[in-house]
Amino acid sequence: MDKQPELQVRTKKLIEAEGLKFKDLNNNGKLDPYEDWRLSPKERAENLVSLMNMDEKIGMMLINSRKMGLAQEDKSKTSHDGVLDEAIIEKGETIFATSKVFGTTHTIAERKLRHFILRDNFSPAETAEWINKMNEVAEETRLGIPVIVASNSRNENGEAVFGMNDAIGILSTWPGTLGLAAAAQGDIKNGGDASLISQFASIARKEWDAIGLRKGYMYMADVVTDPRWQRTYGTLGEDPEFIADAIGRIIDEFQGEELGKNSIAMTTKHFPGGGARENGFDPHYAEGKWNLYPTPGSLEKYHLPPFRAAVEHGTSSIMPYYSIPSIKKSVVQEFEGEDIPFEEVGFAFNHYFLNEILRKELGFKGYVNSDSGIINNMSWGMEDSSEGERFAKAVNAGTDIVADTNDIENLKLAISKGWISEKRIDEANVRLLTEMFALGLFDDRTYNEPEKATEVVKTKEHWDAAYEAHKKSVTVLKNTNQTLPLTQGKLDGMKVYVEVFHKEPERATAYTEKARKEAEELGLFTMTDNYEEADTAILFLQPKSGAYFDATPGLLELEICENKVLSAMDGKLYQETTISAMDHLKEVADNIHSRGGKVIMSVNIILPWILGNVEPLADALIAGYDTFFNAQLEVIAGNHKPTGVLPLTLPASDDVIAVHHNGDCVSPNDVPGYDKDKYMPEGMSYAYKDSDGNIYKLGHGLSY
Questions:
Q1: Cis (ω within 30 of 0) for the bond into 233?
Q2: Does domain 33-457 sit in CATH 3.40.50.300?
Q3: What would the DSSP string read from start to end of 125-145?
C-alpha cells in the first residue's frame, strides 16, 4: 500500500514521516514498522510481536463470547452510554462461564483479549457502535492493538438456537444453507451453475463489512454422511463436489482475491469433516465424541475435498472439529497414498491432521481456530489432563487461537512450565495479527459508520435477491395427478385451509397465524380457517428432533411421529415426538380427501426426515429448508416455477439406519446417502420411495 489511507484515531495521535501520516499507536513519538501501513501485513505483524510482552501474546490467542451492553438488563453494569457490558460472571454461574468472565473494559485492557464472538442480535447500527466502543478501549492500551469480532452466520432464516442460529432476521434473510444448496443445485441441474451461492456471499459480505463484523465462523464444509447428525441443517448437503465448489465461491466473495480492507475473513469448519458421526451423536456431549471411518477411502473421497477447496481459495482460518478419529471403529484411511495414523484425541489436539494433512499436504497458510470449549467441556481425548496440559497439547499440535475462553491463567501456566515454546507462541501471534493488519483494522478500518450499516442492510436489492433464493429453494418431491400448481383456474370458487404443525404446540399456533397472514397478503387463494369447509389444505410441517447440547436417551429420531415408543441406549423405553398433533394432521387430510379435495404438504428439511408417516397423506409433497411460507405459497400457486432439488438423500425407513447391538449401523456412517446403496445388505435400498415411485435421493426435484 503506498496511497495515504484515511487513518482513524480517537485517543492516540497521528505522526508525520516522509510527508505521510501514520498512527502513533504506542505513543513513543516515532514511526515503528507495525505502524507503517506501507509495509506488508506479515512484516508489520512480526514487528508488533517483537514488541509485545507475554501477557499481550497470551490474550491474542484466546477468543471469547462477549455480550453487548444492550443485552445487559442491569444498566449499572454497563459503560460508554450503555454500549459495553461490564458485568462480572463467576465461574460456573452459567454453562458458558467455564472460567470467570470479566467486564469488557477489564477484558481488553487487563486480560489483553482482542478477539471476541458476537452472539447477540441487535440492529446493524447498534452492533457497529458496540465494536467502535470496544476499539476505543483497545486504542488506549499500551500498543493500541484493535479488536476483531467474529460471528456465526447471520444471513439465513431459521429458529434461534445458541451456537447454531445466533442471529436471524436482522440482515438480508436467505433460506437455510440446505436451501441455498437446493436452489443452486437446481440451477446446475437446469444447465446453469452455482452462481446463486456467489451472489449470496457477495451480498452478505457488504452487510458484514458495513457493520464491522470482519471475521465469520462460516461456512460448514462438512459433508453429511450420518443422517442423524444434529448439525446437518447448517451444511450444504451431501455432495462433496458441489460443497467444494460452493465453499470456494463463498471464500472468493467474502474475502476477495486476497484479504483486504473490505474483506470478511472466513473460518471454514469443521476440519476434517464432522459428518462421519457415530450414529448421529454430536460431540457437544460425550456420547458423540467419535468420528468413525468404517469404509475404505471415505475420508479422502467424501470428507476432505471441500477443505482442499477452502485451502486453494485461501480461507483465512480453519476450525477443527471436537471429535476424535476412532481407531477401533475405523479401517485404515489414506491421504495422497500415505496411511493416516489415528491419534485418539480431538482434531484441535491432533498434530498429524493439522500439520501433515492440513499444512503440509493441503498447503494451508492461515491460522487454526479451535471450536468453542476444547479446554473445558469438549476436551475429547484429553479428559484426564489438566487445563494447562490441554492448552499445551492444542497449541503444540498447531492450534493458534482457542475459542470461547478467557482463561489466560492456564495458557500462561503451560508456557511458564516450558510446555509451549515462545517461538510457537510468536508464530501463532504473527498468524493472527497478519489477518488483522490485512483487514485494515490498524489503519482506516478501525471504526465503523453506524448510519452506513443501517443503510447497507436496508438495501432493497439484497432482500429481493434473498426472497428469490427462497422461491428457488422450494423442492417438489411428489405431485400426484398434477395437483400442483394450484392456479386460479383449478381453484375457481374453492376454499383453501392453511395450518402449520410443529413439535411445540405454541409455536405451531404462532406459525399458523403467520402463514395464514402471508397467504392473505399474497391474495392467491380464497381462505378459510375451517378445514371442514375447505377444498384444499396446505399443511406446513416443521419437525424437530433432539437438542444441540444434550444426547437423546436413544438414537436421534428421524421419523415424523408423536409419542413413538423407543428403546434407550440402556434398554429402557421412552417416548419421542418430532411433531405434535399428528392425529389432527391425519384428521384434516382424511376430511379433505373424503370430500374429493387435495392435500398439499410441505416438510421443513433441517434433518433427513423419514417421511413414511406423512407422505401417503399428501397429494403433493414439497420440501422447504427454513424457506419462507410466502415463497412456498408462490411456488404452490404457480407464480414461480419450481427448480429446487434435494441436497441430500432421505432415508427409506428406520430399517436402513438401524444400529446393531454392537453399535454398527446398517448403512455406513461415513458415506453420503447417494452412495450408501453400494454398502447396503442385499435387497435393501437406502433412499425413500413414495407412492408415485419417486425416489428421494440427492438431486430429486420435480417441476411443472
A1: no
A2: no
A3: HHHHHHHHHHHHHHHTSTT-P
pLDDT digits (tens, 9 = 90+) for 402-418: 999 999 999 999 999 99
* Angle of helix 450-457 versus helix 195-211 axis, rounded to 10: 160
On the 0-12 / 13-18 / 19+ scale of CB atoms within 10 A, 77 is: middle
Cα 104 off chain centre by: 26
Q: Which of 672, 659, 559 is nearest to 224 (CA)?
A: 672
Determine the Cα–Cα distance for residues 28 and 347; give it in Å rounded to an integer. Answer: 43
Within the chain, all domains assigned CATH 3.20.20.300 are found at: 33-457
Q: Where in the chain is the domain with CATH 3.40.50?
A: 475-641+649-657
Residue 447's closest CA among 217, 15, 149?
149
CA 119 to chain centre: 13
Distance of CA 174 to the CA centre of its chain: 13
**CA-CA distance, 491 to 535, in Å (whole number)?**
9
Query: How far is it, in rounded angstroms, from Cα 272 to Cα 300?
Result: 9
Residue in this structure with the C-alpha cell 476440519, named with its chain if needed = 271
What is the chain's Cα-based Rg?
A: 26
What values do phi and psi take at 538, rounded to 5?
-115, 110
Q: How far apart are CA 132 and CA 174, in angstroms?
A: 28
Beta strand residue intervals within 80-165, DSSP E: 84-85, 115-117, 148-152
β-strand pairing of 20-24 with 62-65:
unpaired
User: What cell was used for 111?
Assistant: 486480560
- From CA 416, how far away is CA 395, in angstroms rounded? 14
pLDDT in tens, 522-546: 999 999 999 999 999 999 999 999 9
**Region of 340 on the Ramachandran plot (φ > 0 left; ψ -120 to 50 alpha; else beta):** beta
pTM value > 0.85 = yes
What are the cell numbers at 436?
Answer: 488483522
pLDDT digits (tens, 9 = 90+) for 207-249: 999 999 999 999 999 999 999 999 999 999 999 999 999 999 9
Q: Was domain 475-641+649-657 assigned CATH 3.30.450?
A: no
Q: Is residue 367 predicted with pLDDT exceeding 60?
A: yes
**How many alpha carbons fall within 13 Å on the CB side of residue 438?**
20
